[in-house]
Structure formats: structure tokens, C-alpha cells
Amino acid sequence: MFTLDISPALLEQALRHRSALSSNETYQRLDSNERLEFLGDAVLELATTNFLYRQFPQELEGTLTSYRSSLVKTTTLARVARKLEIGDAIIMSKGEAESGGRDNDGLLADTFEALVGALYLNSGFPAVESFLGEHLFIEFDTILKEGTYKDAKSELQELVQADNLAAPTYRVTQEEGPDHDKEFTVEVRIGGKSAATGIGKSKQQAQQDAAEKALKQYKT
Question: Beta strands of the chain (E only): which ranges?
């Protein structure tokens, strides 16, 4: 279980999913974690950029951008959140929990970002860098070794077309959340059949997530 230097009130807000607001009278006049998530997203990107800039002084901008995307993408953040058992601590409605909310990649990643935002407000940027260095940045060795920082959509298209099939197609199947905090679900189809489904905060992120999942299946 994770421990962070965050005040109890701020920690509770960071863990409060919007579904809890309507399901419990106690929370109806309180804020969800969406504002903290908004802040945490920006802090996370800056901290990750700073880490990679210093860690790889010879790499070009394009490569560093790919590295950063691989670290801050939904699936990576969700994996770290699971290791920290964040899902067990999220405050959500009974319905959200019963529908698998505590193990939902997008919800876990959003809560992780909200915690980063709360930690930044409470303890400052150095504390955020220390936390990310201990729990997130250590994931990069595996990412680099496995080559998962590469553009998944391009790699999938090359493999598919090498088998004389048409290029993969992507379709948005679901949109959730308010306009400022959308979560997209995208299906990728190969040869007219569904190959995988991905999620992300933008259509592009969701497409990349779907392509990564399809790649794992296509290579087996």
C-alpha cells in the first residue's frame, strides 16, 4: 500500500472519483479528484520530461517524446497504480466498483495523476520527482529493453501489410467523462475482425493503446 506526504483532506480528494459524489450525501458538496488530476497531468509531464532530458543527453527530441509517451501513457500509469494498490483506496460508488472500476486502467491512471497533483500542492516538485523516481521512472528500463516506446500504430501497420492485409482501421466505440476530461475507447480491426480495444484521454492515445494490445496478439 502506498504512503504519501499529503494532508488527509487533500489525499481524500485525490482518491474521490466523481461517481462517489452522487452516491453519498456526505460527498455531494465536495469536489471529485478531476481538478487534481488536471494539475497532476501537467506536473507528471514536466517531471518525466526533466528526468528523460537529464538521463539521455544525447537523444533527439523525437526519441525523447516517444520515451515520455511510453512512461505517461494510461497502461503504464495503471500498472504502477496496481503495484501501489491504489485501486483499493479509491472512493467510488458501489455501482462503479461492481462494474470493475477498481481495476479499470483509465480510472487507475487518472487517480495516479490526481495523487501526483495532490503531492505537488502539499509537498512541492522535489517530492513529486522523488515519488516518481521510486515508482514510475524505474519502469523505463523494461520499456527500453522491450522496445515498447516505439510507435505501436506504425509497427502494427507494417506487420499487417507484410502479410498482404489492408492497413488496420480504428473506430471510437465509447466516450466518457466531461469535455475537459474525456476518456475514449477505440477498437482496432484487422482483416475486418476486431483485434483489440484501447483506452486513452485522447483518440490518439486510445488508438496507440489498442495498437499495442493488438501487436502482442499479432506477434504470438
Answer: 169-176, 183-190, 193-200
**Per-residue pLDDT tens digits for 93-108:** 999 999 999 999 989 9
Q: Which residues are catalytic?
A: 41, 113
Burial track 78-116 (b if 16+ CB lie within 10 A, e otherwise): bbbbbebebbebbbbbeebbeeebbebbbbbbbbbbbbb
Q: How far apart are CA 99 and CA 78, in angstroms?
A: 17
Cell numbers describing residue 212: 499495442
Element (H, E) at 77: helix 74-83
How far apart are alpha carbons 181 and 201 in whole angstroms? 7
Which CATH number is associated with domain 8-146?
Answer: 1.10.1520.10
Q: What is the pTM of this model?
A: 0.74
**What is the number of helices (H) and of strands (E) in the chain?**
11, 3
Domain boundaries, given as residue ranges, for the chain: 8-146, 152-219
* CATH C-level class of 152-219: alpha beta
In three-state form (DSSP H/G/I as H, E/B as E, the rest C), the secondary structure along 159-197 is HHHHCCCCCCEEEEEEEECCHHHCEEEEEEEECCEEEEE
Contact between residue 65 and residue 146 where contact means Cβ atoms under 8 Å apart: no
CA separation for the pair 198, 193 (Å, rounded): 15
Q: In what order do the strands lie in the sheet with 169-176?
A: 169-176, 183-190, 193-200
Residue 220 has pLDDT above 80, yes or no: no
Rounded to an integer, what distance in angstroms lies between the CA atom of residue 112 and that of residue 185?
19
